[in-house]
Amino acid sequence: MTIYLPNIKSLKDLINSKSIKKIFIITGQNSYFKSHANQTFQGLLKQKNLKFFFKKGSIPEYLELKTVIHKLRSFHPDLILAIGGGCAMDYAKSANALSFSKDIKNSIIHSNLTKKKQCKLVAIPTTAGSGAEVTSNAVIYINKKKYSVEGSNVKPDYYFIFPKLILSSGRKFDASAGFDAISQAIESMFAKKSNSQSYNHAKKALKILLKNYISFLNKKNLKNSYKMALGANFSGKAINISKTIAPHAVSYPFTSFFNIPHGHAVSLTINKFLKFNFDNLQLSNISFKKRYDDLFLITKTKNIFELDNYLNNIKKKAKLEQSFKKLKIDLNKDSNKILSGINEKRLSNNPIKVDKKDVKFIIENY
User: Fold this and answer.
1) pLDDT tens, position by position, for the chain (366 residues)?
2) Alpha-carbon distance 321 to 327, whole Å?
3) Which residues of 89-99 are buried (b: 16+ CB within 10 A; e: fewer)?
4) How many angstroms from the chain centroid is the CA of residue 300?
5) What is the spatial distance between Cα 123 and Cα 80, in angstroms, rounded to a whole number?
6) Do 76 and 100 share a structural domain?
7) Domain range for residue 133?
8) Same domain, residue pair 190 and 272
9) Among the three residues 165, 184, 208, which one is the final residue of a domain in this structure?
10) If residue 210 lies in a helix (H) or strand (E), which one and from where to where?
11) Are residues 315 and 175 in the same domain?
C-alpha cells in the first residue's frame, strides 16, 4: 500500500524519524531548482546525510540506470526521495527494486525482481503528470526498446503532492504530460485488465483532467495545478490495475527514435485506436459499448465522430502537432523502425486483438 502524505508536517515527521539518517535524492537538475524544490525541502533535510543524483537524460535509459544503482549501492541510504517527472520516478523505482539484482539487464528484460529492495521510497511529482507516484511499474529503455519493470517492490511507499512544485514547468512540457494522463485514463477504461475499481479511478481522472487541462496550459495557478496533479494521480491508480493499451504500446518508438515527448507521442494514435476499436467491437468477448457510452457522456459527445473531433480540438488547443510529416516521420520509410519498437505486452491488453500488421494499417488509414 502506498501512503499519501497530505502536508509538509507529515513529510517532515517521516524524514525526522530516528531510523532515517541517510537520504538518496533522485531528481533532475533543472526541475529541482526551477521548481524551487531545493528551497521547499532544504529545511527538512538539513540534519541528514544527503546524496544527490541529477539525471541527465529525458527518458529513462539502462546505462544511466546502472550509474544510479551503483551510487545507490555504495551510499546505502535509509530513504530515497524521487523528486521530478516520470523519468526521475522511473529511475528511483527501478533502482530501488533492482538494487540487489545480480544481472540488472536480465532482470529488466524479464521483469525478474528480487524480493528485497534498498529502502523506503517517497515519490514527489513536479509534473502533472504520469501518476508514477502510485504505480508498481517503471519504464526503462535498452537500445531504444522500451521495457517495463513491474512488481510490488517497484511501487513507492509514500507520495506527496505539492502543487507549488508544478508551477514552473513549461507549457510544451505540460501539454505532453497532461495529455499522457488523459490518455492513461481513457485507455484504462477499455483495457482488458480493467475492473470496477480501475474503471472508477479512470472516470474520476478524466472528469478532473478534461475540465482543467486547457486552463492549466493557458493560465497555470495553484488550483488548476493541484487539480491536474490529482487527476494524474487517479489515472496512475487506474493504470496500476488495468495497464494501458494500444496507444501507449505504439508510442514508445516515436519517443525513442524521433524524440517526441511521451504524452505527445501517445496523442498521435489515440483517436485512431478509439475509432478502430469502436468499429470492431463485435470482435471482443467483452462488451465495451457501455464504456464508449460513458466516454461520450464525460466528453459531452454523442458518437465516435464527435469524440474524434473533441479530442482533436483539445490537441489543437494544446499545440500538440498531429502531422507525421511535420514531425519528420515518414510512415512508409520508418514503418519497420516504428513496428520494431512496439510494446507487445501493452498491445495485447487492447480490447480488440491487434498485431503489428494491424498497427501499420490503423496508423495509415484511421
Assistant:
1) 789 999 889 999 999 998 999 999 999 988 899 998 999 888 889 889 999 999 998 899 999 999 999 999 999 999 999 999 999 999 999 999 999 999 999 999 988 888 889 999 999 999 988 899 999 999 999 998 889 999 989 999 999 999 999 998 999 999 999 999 999 999 999 999 999 999 999 999 999 999 999 999 999 999 999 999 999 999 999 999 999 999 999 999 999 999 999 999 999 999 999 999 999 988 877 788 899 999 999 999 999 999 999 999 999 999 999 999 999 999 989 999 999 889 888 899 999 999 988 999 999 999
2) 7
3) bbbbbbbbbbb
4) 26
5) 8
6) yes
7) 3-165
8) yes
9) 165
10) helix 196-218
11) yes
CA dist 246 and 56 (Å) reads 29
Q: Are residues 229 and 345 in the same domain?
A: yes
Please list, in sequence order, all residues whose beta carbon lies within 8 angstroms of the beta carbon of residue 33, skipping any fewer than 6 positions away.
none
Angle ∠(65,346,138) on CA atoms, nearest 5: 25
CATH code, domain with 324: 1.20.1090.10
- Grid coordinates representing 335? 514503418
Strand-pair category, 145-150 with 158-159: unpaired
**What does the DSSP 8-state code read for residue 61?**
B
Measured CA distances, 1 to 12, 88, 188, 228, 362 (Å): 20, 21, 20, 23, 39
Amino acid in the structure at residue 244: T
Cα dihedral 233→238→242→248 (10° resolution): -50
**Interatomic CA distance for residues 205 and 196, integer angstroms:** 14
How far, in whole angstroms, is CA 244 from its chain's centroid? 10
The three three-digit cell numbers of residue 212, written as one number:
482543467
Q: Tell me the backbone φ, ψ of residue 84, rounded to 5 degrees.
A: 155, -155
Please give the model's pTM, rounded to 2 decimal places.
0.94
Are 220 and 140 in a shared domain?
A: no
- Residue pair 116/70 in contact by the 8 Å Cβ criterion: no
